[in-house]
Write a structure and sequence with these properties.
heterodimer, A: about 260 residues, alpha/beta, Rossmann fold, 4-stranded antiparallel β-sheet, about 40% helix, about 25% strand, B: about 260 residues, mainly alpha
Chain lengths: ~260, ~260
Amino acid sequence: MSTDTVISSRSLTKHYGEVHAVQDLELDVRRGEIYGFLGRNGAGKTTTIRMLLGLIRPTSGEVSVLGRRIVPGETSIFGRIGYLVETATAYPNLTVRENLEVQRRLTGAPRTSITETIALLRLEPYADRRTGQLSLGNKQRLSLARALLHSPEVLVLDEPANALDPAGIVEVRDLLRSLATQRGVTVFMSSHILAEVAHLADRIGIVHDGRLIEESGREEFAAKARAFSAEALTEQERADALLTMDLERYFLSRTGGTT
Amino acid sequence: MMFTSVLATEFLKLRRCKVTWFTFAGLSMGPLGLALFMWIVREPGRAAQLGLLGTKANLSGLEATWPAYLSTLTLLVGIGGMLLLSFIVAYVFGREYTEVTAKNMLALPVARHWFVMAKLVVAAVWWLVLTVAVLAEAMVVGFALSLPGFSATMAIGAVGNALVAAGISYLLVPVVAWITTAGRGYMPPLGFAIAMMALGNIFGKTGWAEWFPWSIVPLMIGMVGNPVESLPAGSFVVLGFMFVAGTAATILQLRYADNAQ
């Protein structure tokens, strides 16, 4: 493993009885890059992320983050990792600020980090609202705020755009890009949304049936995709895709989001 | 330092929690219900006029006196308390699974045993406050009823007994905590608690009460078996073992078992 590698897995495998959720996964995510982990529902993305975070034990193989092997129950490394696992959740009886206070106390982040992160995720109007009353999108913003609160070196994000509206997706995309380029944060993000990964990731890995079936840089991936669509898509399908993009840009311009 | 931080967050998590008030309301109904029974026994004629079951209350053999009131109160705190305490522990541990926050909690830079210890302390404080508040309420209600036969020695003895029963009940909660974390929710621990109470009653009638953990409180408060002055040492060994084993099992469950939600 190179010293530049921040996340690595070797022969990482997880079986649930007869179900092979992840099979011999070999990953190398470099410092400061955004790695898009792309796969359909049930491909093994969340299981991989759970193993990265020590929430579940691999059947075989191993995974390391920041040079430390992840072993369930060994938690000291998580002060350097921010994470969001699948659904956005929080203590519903607590406000946004109080939920972040729980996180702050347990990660040792400074007191000022709460206000800063609330501003970063544009949660000011909801800061003193109970999270049980928030929309799904704002819960997702809160989950991202939790992940960022302690200024981690590595972000592990499982479907970070879940429940966000188009403007929110663009904001989060910009935020992750600036974290990677300006602060050197390494981002490992899973998604089943091609566009989300294509816009953001430096490298893309495609996982299918628990196996990494392809891995390439964004430009290479885009070139392959263009070549494929030139052959496989009809004129109508291409026009529909363009229309979707146009509609999104129009919606953003009408609702104050960046385009 | 880390333990105090975890403990502070565990108390913070209870802010604006309706469940704390529900448990207080639940247990505080006990002395009020008992007081109503006492009044019916003392005033059967008026109770009958109001449509209350004066005859049935009389048939229960209850006397409207302080000794009978306090003795029944100890039963209430001992038996009702065991169930309520299981509910409290199931809530404190189980909410992380029902609110799907366990995955957030377990990937924090905090050793997982601190969460177990802090949650057990929260449950202990919650239970202590609840017990003391209900005992205080019971004394006020007892005086308001002007029951005959009060003596300070007897009252102190009864309150002491109720507190010891509450303390013994607490020694069994780590097992409930373990069932909650293994079952990832409220239903398994509540089912377990009800089953153990039923078994405790059965074991109590077979002469094994002092050895079966869930029979020991009923034995102590005179609900099963022959009345005992004090519990045998073996019972405390059993209770101590249950506390240590339950705590260890909960820590190991959080530390080594898969925690997928």
